[in-house]
């Protein structure tokens, strides 16, 4: 494994700064987390985008959120086919093992994955149509959302598709039997949000996604 290199020094410096301050001042809490295990109240599914930082947005400490990130904050439909499913595995663990009370899907503005899906579905990104494109095949999850926005004025379609990425994910979550059971029994609630990176705002889906209101 000769391709593994030491951590860049700027990250080493940040780590030592964190350990000397945040960790040192809260070491008893971190030891308790290690000993007692995690008991997060919420799972957050958000985008890999480096500008989306849900722990900062909500002021969350270690142990509060079980976080899964992927391209465009998508959840695929339930598909117990014996293959490898990272997002579905994270959902299963959060709901069945951790028994989170809230499952929150957080989308965002200026999402490159959503823009790529729009380009692909509208015929402007043939490279994403290739079977070898991991991004393209992942963004197939969002095709039903594109079908719902394609008749809007063109300058509104991408923003609408960013919201559809959240709604499609919530719809797909409800295809998981254990998610549906937890929701219908009142043990867990689903939430859909879109974060405006430029404005620093959040809107949430209400009435099944028929409307969006500021948090």
UniProtKB/TrEMBL annotation:
Reported cofactor(s)? Zn(2+)
UniProt keyword annotations, A-Z: Lyase, Metal-binding, Zinc
Tell me which domain of life the UniProt entry assigns to the organism this sequence originates from: Bacteria
Q: Which InterPro entries match?
A: Beta_CA_cladeB, Carbonic_anhydrase, Carbonic_anhydrase_CS, Carbonic_anhydrase_sf
What does this chain do?
Answer: Reversible hydration of carbon dioxide.
Into which family does the record put it?
Belongs to the beta-class carbonic anhydrase family.
Q: What is this protein's record name?
A: Carbonic anhydrase
| Native source organism of the sequence | Paracoccus benzoatiresistens
């Amino acid at each position: 494994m000769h391709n593994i290199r030491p951590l860049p020094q700027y990250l080493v410096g940040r780590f030592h700064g964190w350990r000397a301050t945040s960790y040192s001042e809260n070491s008893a809490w971190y030891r308790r987390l290690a000993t007692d295990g995690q008991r997060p109240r919420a799972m957050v599914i958000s985008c890999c985008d480096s500008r989306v930082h849900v722990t900062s947005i909500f002021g969350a400490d270690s142990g509060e959120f079980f976080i899964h990130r992927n391209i465009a904050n998508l959840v695929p439909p339930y598909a117990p086919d014996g293959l490898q499913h990272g997002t579905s595995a994270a959902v299963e663990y959060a709901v069945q093992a951790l028994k989170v009370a809230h499952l929150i899907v957080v989308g965002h503005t200026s999402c490159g994955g959503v823009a790529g899906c729009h380009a692909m579905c509208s015929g402007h990104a043939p490279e994403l149509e290739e079977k070898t494109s991991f991004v393209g095949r992942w963004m197939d999850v969002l095709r039903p959302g594109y079908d719902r926005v394609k008749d809007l004025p063109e300058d509104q379609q991408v923003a609408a598709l960013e919201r559809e990425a959240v709604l499609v994910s919530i719809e797909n979550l409800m295809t998981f039997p254990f998610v549906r059971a937890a929701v219908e029994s009142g043990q867990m609630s689903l939430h859909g949000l879109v974060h405006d990176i430029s404005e620093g705002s959040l809107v949430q889906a209400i009435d099944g996604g028929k409307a969006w209101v500021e948090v």
